[in-house]
Amino acid sequence: MESFVIDKEFVDEFIELLELKSDEELASMLERLYPADIAEIFDHLELEQAVYTTSLLESDKKVEVLAELEPEVRVKFFDGFSHEYIATEFIQNMDSDDAVDVLSVLGTTEAEQIISHLPNKEDSLYLTRLLRYPEDTAGGLMAGELIKVNINWNVSQCTEEIRKQAEEVTRVYTVYVVDDSDILLGWVSLKKIILAKASTPISEIFDSNIKYANVNAEGEDIASVMQKYDLIALPIVDSLNRLLGRVTIDDVVDLIREEADKDYQMLSGISKVVEQKDKVWVLSKARLPWLIIGLFGGIMSSVVIGQFDGQLQENVQLALFMPLIMAMAGNIGVQSSSIIVQGLANNTISNDSVWSKLAKELTVALINGLVCSALLLGYGLLVGKSNGIMSTVSVALFAVILLAAIIGTIVPLILDKLKIDPALATGPFITTSNDLLGLFLYFVIGKMLM
Amino acid sequence: MESFVIDKEFVDEFIELLELKSDEELASMLERLYPADIAEIFDHLELEQAVYTTSLLESDKKVEVLAELEPEVRVKFFDGFSHEYIATEFIQNMDSDDAVDVLSVLGTTEAEQIISHLPNKEDSLYLTRLLRYPEDTAGGLMAGELIKVNINWNVSQCTEEIRKQAEEVTRVYTVYVVDDSDILLGWVSLKKIILAKASTPISEIFDSNIKYANVNAEGEDIASVMQKYDLIALPIVDSLNRLLGRVTIDDVVDLIREEADKDYQMLSGISKVVEQKDKVWVLSKARLPWLIIGLFGGIMSSVVIGQFDGQLQENVQLALFMPLIMAMAGNIGVQSSSIIVQGLANNTISNDSVWSKLAKELTVALINGLVCSALLLGYGLLVGKSNGIMSTVSVALFAVILLAAIIGTIVPLILDKLKIDPALATGPFITTSNDLLGLFLYFVIGKMLM
Q1: Residue A418 contacts B where some CB pair is shorter than 8 Å
Q2: Mean per-residue pLDDT for B245-257?
Q3: Cα dist from B237 to A402, B106, B185, B335, B345, whole Å
Q4: Over the stretch B404-448, which tens digit does the pLDDT of each residue have?
Q5: Could you give the ipTM of this predicted complex?
Q6: A316 — contact with chain B (CB < 8 Å)?
Q7: In CATH, which of 2.40.30.10, 1.10.357.20, 2.40.37.10, 2.40.50.140 is domain A280-449?
Q8: B8-141: what fold?
């Protein structure tokens, strides 16, 4: 891989050059670096140093670095500039989706103050509108910069339009074709434009078969359509099919990663997306909520078991297998719920009714429950444990496995129906409630059988 | 969203038309459908029906549908055709990365037999070579179809080359620039080619600043570079920097999803990537391994607790808080390990030494341990539980939280060093071992304090 890592040494060297004000050396260094790399260096700079470094960047790169900054670094960074400077030097030169991303870390009031300094009123209207779309919808993801041509034009008019827009639209993948009312009719690839004669009418070479999405579509749906159909950009339209913007694959890649990270952390009992390199108190705060739920569940368990303490006193053997029951209840619950949650997230869930999904989960649980209970009984025979305790534990294990599968399947489906993120049903929540119910069932069965 | 869902009704209607042999209606239906949608219909067809449907597809679409089929459907589908037909009708018309994907579901022998029927010897050599690269490396992901131009050419020669290659390279994003020995020098965008004069030398408009990767690079590294730098395609070179192919973002998107799914299922205790719509026995088989490990852990726990049964008999209260200790040990272990695993997967882990990572995790555990132990003590005071048991449980809880954090941090880091997938350290594995150690610690502390 030709990419290199921004390590501590490199940053130290950079800061030394900053202190020496070796502008020439710095500028040549910056020229060789990609915006994403420069943004990483900014993580380690003081505000003053960051402002100084910015002054050494050429206009295009300045803007790209800003777009790559981590949100919290960006907020700090903005303090070094006036609203007018931010508007005219940064926002004006950015793709509108990046501009919205960049501004969204500020409050609405401050964002709109900055926007008001844009020289072009149309730009500021468009940005204000974009800022109002929820972040994870087509509107929140899209950019207004795209090349569109009228169906009545020919290839040379189209090339002329690309030339006009070239500075503003950094990456042209496709040219969209619209009618006089801006209604999306289709697309034409750059390849076709290069290969066609200048006088060819667009209507002859354009392709009317085009995927598009409404501005209110969910980000996750946009992601799955673009993934399914291998699209690099997806045009976004309003309810009258007028072309508003396009979502590009790079934003979708980020979205897919973020969604996956969110689900993963939910499953692991962490309430917010955090990274190992975050500060200690951020990490601690993200984990405490689930730990406290777990603690509460543990206290509840002690109350449940307390109800059966006579039975425990009589037969202390029962205590030995509590961990087994709990661990299995927890595992089964997490397995069942995560398969449902992942199916919902990836749209790979069957269209069957809730009942048939449940029937399927129960069949799986039945098989796995029989296997596990049989293994446990076998172990009991092997080591010569008393039949009473082993048959009790085996029967209870089987019952607990079925119960845990039912809860693990139903809870995420219910949450999804209620429009609550079903991923909430994975992780400590399901483990804790399965622990409780599992233990209760275990003691009830123990009371009946022993 | 303009996309529509292939549901049971639609498939039934399609099959009815097939049985009626309404070729015209079928053809017009197929024309309106995207390859990914047709592939979904194929999931529900008998081999004979699938072969018949294929005969109605135009050549381009035929190939795209094949690339979109699920691997197991594709294997079945191949049975309907001769090797020669597969080679000349499918493989020859595919991008080489799709051809390799398609062939990789067959054994090497069968794949090479099919390849031998390709009319162009160069193609079959290139494919045989691609088939040898491991699936998740740059070599396994790349396609040979790309537009490359010589640095000594001008724009009109470049356009001519695009025209020549246009049929083979379906999507042109960038044109790569090489020297006489095929060494990668840079790239030029289609936009620039459209806007430049025909006589402009490529050397004047090309950009030498280009990201590329070696053919042996890991797929995950390719994915993070392309995500970090917002790339649509990444050129792949050999050790002499000769251009071999390119990896496109659509394959990387699939890879990112697969990797995320794999880690998610590992964390949820499922040993293979499965979907809710898979068959019962597939689901059952994927879950049993971890359940049996959990069962084994539970049996081990019963042995550990058995060592302390005198103590339990004496003070049955100790049993009441076993679930609490276990649940907390499990949660902390999963939290710590998953943050490390995700950091390793996303390359967002700090560059500090193992010791300083551990120190950080321990600090977080210290804070969370103090909070949880204090809450537990508070609960004891509130309900008037005996001081003896509550202080024992609180001290044990604190110790167990620290221990679980250490194990959760160290195990994935060790696995990663040993080149074993660190995700193995999440899920039931870590929960089970933390349960065991946690309970042991609990009883030892109980013995000392009570």
Answers
A1: no
A2: 90
A3: 54, 27, 11, 40, 24
A4: 999 999 888 888 888 888 887 777 778 888 888 999 999 999 888
A5: 0.77
A6: yes
A7: 1.10.357.20
A8: MgtE N-terminal fold (1.25.60)
